[in-house]
Fold Aluminum-activated malate transporter 7-like.
Amino acid sequence: MEKVREIVREGKRLAKEDPRRVVHSFKVGLVLALVSSFYYYQPLYDSFGVNAMWAVMTVVVVFEFSVGATIGKGFNRVAATLFAGALGIGAHHLASMSGATGEPILLAIFVFVQAALSTFVRFVPRVKARYDYSLLIFILTFALISVSGFREEQVLMLTHKRISTVIIGGLSCVLISIFVCPVWAGQDLHSLLASNLEKLSFFLLDFGDKYCEAVGNDDTKEVDKRKKDFDNYKSVLNSKSNEESLANFAKWEPGHGQFRFRHPWKQYLALGELIRQCAYRIHALNSYLNTDDTKVPVEIKNKLREPLKRMSLESGKAMKEMSMSLKKMTKPSSCDLHVQNARSACKSLTNLLNSGILKEVEPLELISLLTAISLLIDIINLTEKILESLHELASAAKFKDKTERPLSFEKTNAKSIVCGRPIKCHDDHVVTIIEDDGNNDDTSKNDNRSNEVTNHEKREDSNTHVHVKCLCDVVECR
Amino acid sequence: MEKVREIVREGKRLAKEDPRRVVHSFKVGLVLALVSSFYYYQPLYDSFGVNAMWAVMTVVVVFEFSVGATIGKGFNRVAATLFAGALGIGAHHLASMSGATGEPILLAIFVFVQAALSTFVRFVPRVKARYDYSLLIFILTFALISVSGFREEQVLMLTHKRISTVIIGGLSCVLISIFVCPVWAGQDLHSLLASNLEKLSFFLLDFGDKYCEAVGNDDTKEVDKRKKDFDNYKSVLNSKSNEESLANFAKWEPGHGQFRFRHPWKQYLALGELIRQCAYRIHALNSYLNTDDTKVPVEIKNKLREPLKRMSLESGKAMKEMSMSLKKMTKPSSCDLHVQNARSACKSLTNLLNSGILKEVEPLELISLLTAISLLIDIINLTEKILESLHELASAAKFKDKTERPLSFEKTNAKSIVCGRPIKCHDDHVVTIIEDDGNNDDTSKNDNRSNEVTNHEKREDSNTHVHVKCLCDVVECR
């Protein structure tokens, strides 16, 4: 009894998590009951006979959760059936010319060769990714048609009936999946990336506070909350296969909502990969949050608090904006500003570090602090790359322009005053270069550095550590 | 013509990469030709008729690459067919009692309810992982039997024939896959983990040399080699889904070679996860190898070279040994010694760092060095955890004992002399505690610390940074 209640509870949870699951189940039941009517109505049964069961089979196998998956599978099935049907008839014709003793032997050889060859082709990675199901159906249909043709003499009739019923089954699935509460894989992929960005932004917006205030904080509630945060990244870390299959399905879908037929789904995969790379860094950063690092002296932490907080806060804001702009399909506008703010905070931090406040600290005590800083710098670099990738997506997918708001002087919490100055960049978005007026006298040198920072945008090799370069520049400037 | 040649080349590459693919393709062709004989031989055809095609279908759908996958799918198919067959007959009987008008309506309702319910159950993650195919076949068979029963009156006969042919098809697949050049998923999983460990060991054995000598080395050949190393981890990083499906298949397999029927496959997943965690760290470390870190002064690097090299070398040796012991299925014996050597090297390093050699270095210039050290310490901790997990696997899977070789004084390249002293630990493996006689006078204090180190083995929370604790101990001892 307890077990039954548990099962019901699990079912309710699944339905609540995504109500489209319930709708999908009803749709499958509906189509199946509909297609079964082939058997009920005498006229239909008379023309298709026992072959009507192929329609039932097609429905059960082809009807998938999303429109794209259903169309893809339906297309694979119909195309493979047609092709294998034609080949099967040819094989049958060829075999029948070789006489009564030769026929079964020749047919067996055909089946063997075709099955072995197709099975081997299924190992080719590119084929496996998109046409695995096609090949399965190809082997199946060829074997059935060429071999059963050996008995029933009306091979052509049989093939015709089988293909018609498969098409009928496939079409009903596709039509119902498109017109009754459709589930679009493309829309799902789009939302998935936006929500992944949002998850990262939540962490970054909170990180600064937590890191600086978490000294020796053993509150269990706090720890629980952090654990929950932690679990959020896990979903981003493992989202690769999900993204890939959604992108694969989305390619089959017709235009829907804001998405055209040839929406640049491939670009979503590139963006998703960068988001995941950033999530790896955040994963590592989170482990330093949970570390028992009372060893970093509080006064040092206090001195570094301001720029540290600003670094994570600004990159978090940029992520949040990007998530919003992706959701609304508008071009990201003020993200560049946030990224540059984060960069200037990073500069203040390095200036602080260079001012010698760490002189009296043991190097060992610095390990966790410096590693956290190094990770944060990495995250800012990746944020910039994500932004770049989003810009590419925005221009490829023709995102709407937001109503331009004037670039204003942005005042942050930091002491240094930053001013925005727009310059034209390689594609049609505006990059704002920040000049940190607070700390520098030599404007020309400073300008050079700013250009360096802009150049980072064009870098593509994700393995080199850009931040080291960036830090070195700062060191040289001093 | 060029295209054809390219395809042939790709085919050759695939066949060379794993010749079992060719064998598998032949096997599928063979079974399919064999099962087609149902149609050729008059007596068999007379008893099964057109239902013989279910055998062909079963073969095409069920025959997978590994024995475990084939058995699993065959079992799923047969069980679902049996169960759905019984239910279908019941539904047909119930509907036929309700008269000529009620029958089709009742049947449609049955099909609808069953299809909707089963489709919903397929969303349950645990069911989806293992029984997704069962449910698909269940929906299919139930619909076909209950509905086609409406026409042909001999439902029982139909069901009987269908189930027999499915069993015949499934059995031929299983028998051929077991007795003709079998591909065991369990063996594959076992080899995969051993080779993953080996890949990590290759990196670690080389890392010390490369890191310390790579100052300003821009040799393109060298860079290419490193890139290749880098690609090796990629395969470890993304091996999760592969491991999971192999473990899933392996559960279905009968005992084979050195593996019993209930081999602890679950433990392999735990071990694989730890190896992957270690690969993440190595991935990060590799990026520091490629960094343009000429900023770390050469004299500092020279001073730290010895312990740094020894840390990576010893953990690499431990990995190599573990890989060998997994391959040969013997209990790991001298790995503990290597891990403890790595720990003692780590101690020497921290002593060096504490001696103040970094006082005159700018903190910014230390970032990459300290992060690399922090990652190496992490890797050593993970090596220890992997070893622990391997010990668990060894006792669960009853690995053979290696012929005990006497614990000898091991001379490493370092100046400190270490001696091994075996103590009994929680389970039946021997842990060797190393005493670093070179640097310490206070033996009792040293003993305490050694115990601390052993205690790390029992830690399970992988998120806390054990190395911080370890480092702090060293600092306190001074």
